What does this fold into?
Amino acid sequence: MRVLGIETSCDETGVAVYDSQQGLLAHSLYSQVELHSEYGGVVPELASRDHVRKLLPLIDEVMAAAGTQSQDIDGIAYTSGPGLIGALMVGACAGRSLAYAWGCKALGVHHMEGHLLAPMLEANPPAFPFVALLVSGGHTQLVRVDGIGRYRMLGESLDDAAGEAFDKAAKMLDLDYPGGPQIAKLAEQGEPGRFRFPRPMTDRPGLDFSFSGLKTFTLNTVAEHKLESGLPDDQCCADIAYAFEDAVVATLVIKCRRALEQEGLKTLVIAGGVSANKRLRAELESKLAKIDAGVYYARHEFCTDNGAMIAYAGCQRLLAGQEQELALKVQPRWDL
Ligand code: KG4
Ligand code: ZN
It folds into this structure.
């Protein structure tokens, strides 16, 4: 089965062609990061308009790169939620209409299921069952995964998502959006041990998260050390970035280990934008090795939003016989 995947839930236009026999044939991404950077976050209306401009040319490019004609496509998978409603509508409308014109199947895919399955595109994919840590700009969730569509929520953030916390902390340090990679880069210059930030909700049982207190702690630390410019000096900013990243990573590691032990599993999958974080990967690898557990993640470009994960997830669902009626449905909020 050959599937065209379309991702437009936020600020990346992602397109890919996945073949169940031959694997990923081609993929491409157009990022709107520059468009939104002057606003310090994603402007929904601008995102939708840019998807409208970029999507069809990108589909054309990816189909050509995959050496695929429309008649070779068996199905089209598009992200139908969760995400920005206008942005979702662009991908859903284009995907559904192309499928109608090409006479193939179409299916809306859950964005987080796409992230969750992205490590399956790698050479050494994880085997079911496993625990997945989904860490993106909108979600922080621990999920038990027994197979495609067999997901059980173990814990989630009660307030901010991990990526959102990175983005907000970055703003406090006057760094560009998206903040995760910027904090990670600045943290490399930070001095370990100068500050110690709290590890929220790790001293009590359970697998839920809360990052809003850490955000306030960061704000207070910045305020305490700020100079006339309104910011602490460069070294202090780096030390704060280090302590912030350290606290988020330590918190995620503790909960992942707890989830694996609770479920009696030895495989952890990390997915979503924050899974690109090098310190998170390194800390998980070293801490989980102690309990003989392995960590799986997607290549860097498939940690953040992309079309390949949607093509893959859609292909698995279409192979299982799922498809949808012609009427479009997108869901800005949607549980996994
Ligand atoms: O999965 P994603 O591309 O979009 C959503 O579905 O939200 O995740 C984006 C999030 C942003 O909050 C971004 O700051 C964060 O992932 N992120 C990172 C890193 N790269 C991206 N956070 C920490 N470290 C990184 N290296
Ligand atoms: Zn995402």
